[in-house]
Amino acid sequence: MNLFEYIKGVVSDVILDKIIVEVGGIGYRIHSSIHSAAATKPGETITIFTHFVVREDEISLYGFTTKEELNMFEKLISVSKIGPKVGTAVLSTYTPAKLANYIINNDIQSISKVPGIGKKTAERIILELRDKVKQWNLETEEDMVIDIPSSYEVIEALMALGYNRQEAEKAFDVVKKEKLPVEEMIKKALKLLVR
Q: What's the whole-model pTM score?
């Protein structure tokens, strides 16, 4: 059972993969994919389609700007040993249509590129979701060439160079708007951090 179907309110902040939405004086922290977070900006009124997670050690709200992304998230967390954090990591790396393509084409290598997903988990995703994603609107080969750079690569590269996560995330937030290749984003982020 899902407690909240969606939340409509004003975006008060966007922090990498979290969207803070204010409704009636309450700020809801919504864990999301980087794609959904990048599609929002502070001050705008949005509708976020949500999934409420209640566990022994966690009560969290996950949400996305499209029903398609929420639908894929719910399919992912139905796979054994895939939790909501890994689900959002997958959707931060690939669009739902691209992921569906990889699942249908048995592309273990592409799925296992996601941080936190190994070969066995990729195989399990394919095995458990192949029949559930067959009717998905699949991207054409042409669409698949256009890839939104993975923020994980940019942030991890900056952290490997000695910057802390907060500095790396701040720099990424500035350079992501230009939708450059990962290498270019890292170079631009470094220029910002060196100032």
A: 0.71
